[in-house]
Amino acid sequence: EIALLAGCTERTIYTILRFHRDFGHVQNPFARKRGRPRALDQQDITYITSILDAHPSIYLDEIQERLFAARDIE
Q: SUPFAM superfamilies of this UniProt entry (predicted)?
């Protein structure tokens, strides 16, 4: 019933339950990360969000300049 409500297979549910039982997380913490590494971390995203909250009409190039000046991110 959980699989039907979640829109996934029973195998996925059992895998998630096993990871939660074994690791305390719903994902395997030892699995290799997939894909390209993120360019921004959570602190960078929080900084950008605070800029946008304070200046909703700011241009992208101005956000990039502030991000580079404050967090040394290009």
A: Homeodomain-like
Structural domains of the chain, count:
2
Range of the domain at 9: 1-31
For residues 4 and 59, what is the distance between their CA atoms, to the nearest angstrom?
Answer: 45
Same domain, residue pair 68 and 42: yes
Write out the two tokens for 54.
Answer: 């304070």
Give backbone dihedrals phi and psi of 2, rounded to 5 degrees, phi first: -65, -45
Whether 49 and 42 have beta carbons less than 8 Å apart is answered as: no
Instruction: For residues 15 and 20, give the distance between their C-alpha atoms in angstroms, rounded to a whole number.
Output: 9
CA distance to 6, 35, 40, 57, 59, per residue, from 73 (Å): 38, 20, 8, 21, 17
Structure tokens given for 9: 């297979």
Distance CA 51, CA 63 (A): 7
